[in-house]
C-alpha cells in the first residue's frame, strides 16, 4: 500500500492555490493582449527587471523585506482567527516612531537602533490595541475597524510630518535620522540592509513557535476551532487580544525597518501598499510563515521588475496592480470554495 507524500488536505490546498495563481496570471495575460502587448515579452521583462543582475536582485530583496515582515504580521493574526487589515497603518506609525527616535535623540550606535526599533514595535501594537479591545470586548468586526484605522494613521503621520516635525526648507519629510540609527547595509551597491535578515529570522521563529510551542498550538486552536479551544480551558478573548497586539507590533516593526534601513527619515507616503501586499502574500501562502517568504519574494519581484517594464515595453507599470488584484480575487475565491467544502468548518493552517 502506497503512502501519499502529502496529506490529502494539504494536497487540495496547494492544488487550489496553484490553480488560483495560474488563473490570475492567465487573466493578466489576456489584459496585456488587450493593450496590444505580448504577454511573454512583458513577463520576461519583469523577470529581467527583478533578477537580471546582482543590483536588480538586491533591489528585489529590498522590496521583498517590508512585504515579508508585513506578511508575517498577517500570518500571526490569521493563525489566531483575526483578520488584521490595518497593517498598513501600523507600518506608517511604526515608521514615524522610529524616525522620531532617530532624529530627536543622540544615542550610541547599537542602542540607538534597538530603541528606535522598540518604539516602532510599541507604536504598531498601541495602534491596533483599540480595535483589538473592541473586538474581544464587544465582538466588533476587526476587518472594518482596522481598515478604517489605516486612513487615520496615514493622515496622523502626515500631520506630524508637515506641521510638527517638517525638515526646514524641505519637502513633506522629517529631518534625517542620525547615522547611529542606521540599519547596516548588506552590500555597498544597494540599500538592502539587515532588515531582510530580521524578516527571515522572524518567519522561521514564527513557524517554530506555532509548530512546537504550546502557546502557539493554543493560538492555532483558537483560530481553527474557537469553541473547542474554549471548552479545553483556553481564554479565547485573551488569546485574540494578544494575537492582534502581536500582529500590530510586527507591522510597526516593518515600518521601523523601512525607515531606519532605506529612507533614513519619514516622508509622506513613504511605503505605499506594503501592508496590503504583505496581507495578500500571507493569504497566498495559506497563513504559513515559511510560505510567506516565497510569496513575498514574488510580490517583491513584481514591484522591482515593474521599474524596467515602462522602459522596454509600452505597457504601464500599473499592470502589476491589475495582476495583484486578479491574484486577490482568485485566492479569495479559492478560500471561499475550500471553506464551503469543509464540512467540519475548521480552517487548516499548514507549515
User: How much strand?
Assistant: under 5%
Radius of gyration: 21 Å
Distance between the termini: 26 Å
| Total separate domains | 1
Residue windows where pLDDT falls under 50 for at least 5 positions: 1-7, 343-351
Instruction: Specify the structural class.
Output: mainly alpha
Shape: globular
Average pLDDT score? 87
Quick synopsis:
With 351 residues, the chain is mainly alpha-helical. It has helices at residues 8-34, 39-51, 54-79, 87-104, 109-138, 142-164, 195-212, 214-224, 226-231, 236-263, 274-284, 289-312, 319-341.
Features:
mainly alpha; ABC transporter involved in vitamin B12 uptake, BtuC
What does this structure look like?
- The structure is a single chain.
- This protein is mainly α and 351 residues long.
- It has a single domain (42-333), classed as ABC transporter involved in vitamin B12 uptake, BtuC.
- 74% of the residues lie in helices and 0% in strands.
- It contains 13 helices and no strands.
- Helix 3 crosses helix 12, helix 4 runs antiparallel to helix 5 and helix 5 (109-138) packs antiparallel against helix 6.
- The two termini are 26 Å apart.
- Mean pLDDT is 87; it is low at 1-7 and 343-351.
Amino acid at each position: 500500500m502506497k503512502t501519499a507524500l502529502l496529506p490529502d488536505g494539504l494536497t487540495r490546498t496547494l492544488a487550489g492555490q496553484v490553480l488560483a495563481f495560474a488563473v490570475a496570471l492567465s487573466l493578466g495575460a489576456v489584459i496585456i493582449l488587450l493593450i496590444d502587448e505580448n504577454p511573454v515579452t512583458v513577463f520576461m521583462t519583469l523577470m529581467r527587471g527583478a533578477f537580471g543582475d546582482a543590483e536588480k536582485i538586491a533591489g528585489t530583496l529590498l522590496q521583498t523585506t517590508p512585504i515579508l515582515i508585513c506578511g508575517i504580521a498577517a500570518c500571526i493574526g490569521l493563525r489566531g482567527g483575526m483578520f488584521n487589515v490595518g497593517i498598513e497603518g501600523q507600518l506608517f506609525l511604526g515608521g514615524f516612531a522610529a524616525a522620531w527616535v532617530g532624529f530627536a535623540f543622540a544615542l550610541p550606535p547599537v542602542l540607538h537602533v534597538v530603541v528606535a526599533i522598540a518604539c516602532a514595535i510599541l507604536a504598531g501594537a498601541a495602534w491596533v490595541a483599540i480595535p483589538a479591545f473592541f473586538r474581544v470586548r464587544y465582538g466588533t468586526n476587526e476587518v472594518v475597524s482596522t481598515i478604517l484605522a489605516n486612513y487615520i494613521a496615514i493622515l496622523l503621520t502626515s500631520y506630524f510630518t508637515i506641521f510638527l516635525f517638517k525638515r526646514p526648507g524641505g519637502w513633506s519629510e522629517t529631518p534625517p535620522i542620525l547615522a547611529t540609527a542606521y540599519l547596516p547595509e548588506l552590500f555597498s551597491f544597494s540599500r538592502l540592509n539587515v532588515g531582510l535578515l530580521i524578516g527571515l529570522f522572524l518567519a522561521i521563529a514564527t513557524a517554530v513557535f506555532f509548530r512546537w510551542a504550546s502557546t502557539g498550538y493554543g493560538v492555532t486552536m483558537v483560530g481553527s476551532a474557537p469553541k473547542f479551544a474554549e471548552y479545553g480551558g483556553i481564554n479565547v478573548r485573551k488569546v485574540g487580544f494578544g494575537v492582534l497586539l502581536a500582529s500590530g507590533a510586527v507591522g510597526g516593526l516593518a515600518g521601523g525597518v523601512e525607515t531606519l534601513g532605506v529612507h533614513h527619515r519619514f516622508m509622506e507616503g513613504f511605503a505605499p501598499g506594503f501592508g496590503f501586499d504583505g496581507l495578500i502574500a500571507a493569504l497566498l501562502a495559506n497563513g504559513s510563515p515559511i510560505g510567506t517568504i516565497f510569496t513575498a519574494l514574488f510580490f517583491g519581484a513584481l514591484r522591482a521588475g515593474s521599474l524596467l517594464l515602462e522602459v522596454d515595453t509600452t505597457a504601464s507599470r500599473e499592470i502589476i496592480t491589475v495582476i495583484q488584484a486578479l491574484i486577490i480575487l482568485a485566492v479569495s475565491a479559492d478560500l471561499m470554495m475550500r471553506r464551503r467544502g469543509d464540512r467540519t468548518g475548521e480552517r487548516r493552517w499548514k507549515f
